[in-house]
Amino acid sequence: MTQNTNKSSPGKQGDKGTKPKFNTNWIFAIIALSFILFQVFFSRNVTEKATTNMIKDMIVMHDIEKLVVVNKDQAEIYLTQDALSSGRYENLPRPGGGGGMGLQVPKPHYTYNIGDISNFEPFIIETQKSAGYSENELIYPEYVTRKNYFADILGWLLLPALLIMVWIFMMRRMTGGGTGGAGGIFSVGKSRAQIFDKDTHVNLNFNDVAGLEEAKTEVMEIVDFLKNPKKYTKLGGKIPKGALLVGPPGTGKTLLAKAVAGEANVPFFSISGSDFVEMFVGVGASRVRDLFKQAKEKSPCIVFIDEIDAVGRARGKNVNFSSNDERENTLNQLLTEMDGFGTNVGVIILAATNRADILDRALLRAGRFDRQIHVELPDLNEREAIFHVHLRPIKLEQNFDVSFLAKQTPGFSGADIANVCNEAALIAARKNKSVVEKQDFLDAIDRIVGGLERKSKIISIEEKRTIAYHEAGHATVSWLLEHASPLLKVTIIPRGRALGAAWYLPEERQITTSEQLLDEMAYSLGGRAAEELVFGKISTGALSDLEKVTKQAYAMVSYFGMSDKVGNISFYDSSGQSDFGFTKPYSEKTAELIDREVKDIIEQSYERAKNLLRSNMKGLSELAELLLEKEVIFSEDLKKIFGKRKAERLREEREMKNKKAAAKASAGSGTAAKASAGGGTEAGGTVVTAEKAPSGKTAKASAGKTVKASSGSAAEKMLETAVEKPDDLNVTGKSEEVSENSGEK
User: Fold this and answer.
1) Helix, strand, or coil here: 453?
2) Which CA distances in Å does 648 have to 483, 596, 656, 736, 744?
3) Nearest Cα residue to 376 out of 519, 490, 492, 214
4) Beta strand 686-693 pairing with 681-683
5) Catalytic status, residue 471
6) Is 390 within 8 Å of 418 (Cβ atoms)?
7) Among 126, 181, 235, 481, which is disulfide-ready with 519 (CB 3.0 to 4.6 Å)?
8) Could you say which of 218, 471, 520, 531 is catalytic?
9) Mean pLDDT, rounded, of the chain
């Protein structure tokens, strides 16, 4: 579907009744043409200048008819007709000529620049007397004063005209390059929102938005309400006045709004929050008023404000401390228009932000934004769906596994996934491939996460060895810890600003325990611990590790309440307003306690990492030497050195125990079934019988213990214990009955 231009746009072909607008460039063309014509018809012809010797010769030959001194600085010499016809003077202008069309003074034959007017007339008189002129023949200079009115007028008008032209040029630039729109410079307070209606449509719909199923359901309901309002109004429902899309950058908030514009059959206004901010006072509020005025005229419609935090920041919490903040005036006008004394029937507000914590509470209340739609990072299934969307135009190899890419990109947003697909295509094209392969995507992920490889970077042998042991320390400690993230590969090839890197595949979990945090801190410090144990000294290469560990430790103590001494206290401010405060929400004594706890946690994690490396020094050295040899090693290489990861071993042990428990439970169930049929089964000398009871199953052991449970699950577990370990039962000859639901004996 092609986009059509607005009907009211000037210069559109096919509008027969529209008169063409006057182009101001014609003014400059007329001025230039007038100047050229003036030069052609009114400029003086070039008059030859005479020297002092030429004047003396003219006087001796009696060739001068008259002398005219103009403005006391120039003498005009007019020759006699006999002199002109004598042939002594060639290429002279005709007397009175010059093409002046009768509007100018006759042209002289020669001109002479006078240096000192007081000496010029005596010089002329003395020269004539020396040439034998009589008193009646003496020629006396005539003195005239002439004014150049055109030059005077031009001198007065040139500077103002230049200023006016500069002003016109600046105003044309400010109003959008000359077309301006209605009002010209006075349209600065008009709304700059883009309008998408039946003439200008967006070629995007909900099928182009992968994942975000819950968010799509919310906004699709708004679109459906506009298309079929009776479906909701017959039950008494009202259309939501506004919906706020909240989420991290790159998760698809603006894309979702574009899909709404493509799906809705109503006018869609799109504007950025920064468009309300202007250097002129009152412009922001004026643009808000104009936006809602246009929206009311086209209702029902949808207004989308992207990055609303540019104008919606909480009042009184701005960084600048001016008494009259233009942003606050704009916000006040926005609040009034959204839900003030007037009503906006049929105007739905959609807004997007990634900083909902700093928005004003009055903006977030019901009646303005009735819904807050959280657009979070995609999970595994959503990432796979997003990959399918972005892989449509890419030529892939046969039997390509898209789910593999989804597993390799935990924590990636939709924008990151689009970047991965594009980078993979560029890498394949750089290698002159006909299709994009799996390795191209892996290289693209490494390129985005770690940066570009710098194999040409010069690193000494000692530094390379230090880097190898540092990265080997990370890999070794993480491999031997239960809650560490699975290791993918380790490299000592510089990428970006890093000299080496260990790549992990973190688990997608919603909550994190203290054990998991401590394990992450321990393997983060494994690099520095390896340097100290192997070389006896430490380096600056652990800067990023120390920064990460310090932030995690402070978060554990002051945010998550994971310190016994500080207690279950959190100083985290979810509103984000503490970013601009100058005081801490705790005393100096508490601050000292937090610092001590953080230091203790980090030191314990560091000692834990060193102890693990001491007990596995042989594997550490083997891994580091392998790194120096290959530069890149994978998890398979670590498995050959250390065996399976500790997490894998523990998981296999738990699975084995569960299988054994399930097998024993099924065996116990079969025994109880036989007993209920009237038979008995001996298990290690103990006879187990089962009887029917009104409240549930009853398992009676020969030791005299009876277990009763209405649900059956606890009874089966205890029955398994009775069959497996009869000696552990309390043999007193008394019959005890335990109910799972009530807990009574």
Assistant:
1) strand
2) 10, 35, 12, 41, 41
3) 214
4) antiparallel
5) yes
6) yes
7) 481
8) 471
9) 77
Radius of gyration of the chain (CA): 47
- Alpha-carbon distances of 349 from 210, 308, 337, 355, 533, rounded to whole Å: 23, 11, 11, 18, 61
pTM of structure: 0.63
Query: Which secondary structure element, helix H or strand E, spans residue 363, and what is its range?
Result: helix 361-364
Tally of CB atoms within 10 A around 456:
6
Q: How many helices (H) and strands (E) does the chain have?
A: 24, 17
Nearest-10 Cα torsion for 55, 56, 57, 60:
120
Alpha-carbon gap, residue 742 to 745, rounded angstroms? 9
Whole-number Cα distances in Å, 22 to 28, 43, 59, 329, 586: 13, 32, 62, 39, 69
The amino acid at 97: G
Q: How far apart are the first and last CA of the chain?
A: 76
pLDDT-based confidence at 39, cuts 50/70/90? low
Q: pLDDT band at 548, cuts 50/70/90?
A: very high
Query: 653-657: long-range contacts at Cβ-Cβ below 8 A with a sequence spacing of 24 or more?
Result: none
Helices (H), 395-513: 402-408, 414-430, 438-450, 461-480
Rounded CA-CA distance 157/201 in Å is 51
CA distances from 21 to 13, 180, 187 (A): 14, 12, 18
**Length of the chain, please?**
745
Pairing label, strands 242-246, 347-353: parallel
SS3 for 352? strand
**Amino acid identity for residue 575 in this structure:** S
CA–CA distance, 366 with 349 (Å, rounded to integer): 12
Q: Residue 701: beta bridge partners?
A: 688
Percent of the chain with pLDDT over 70: 74
Widest distance between CA atoms in the chain: 173
Compute the distance between CA of residue 453 and CA of residue 137 in angstroms, rounded to an integer.
101
C-alpha to C-alpha distance for 52 and 68, rounded to whole angstroms: 16
Give DSSP secondary structure letters for 531-593. HHHHHSS--GGGHHHHHHHHHHHHHHHHTS--BTTTBS-----TT-GGGG-SS-SS-HHHHHH
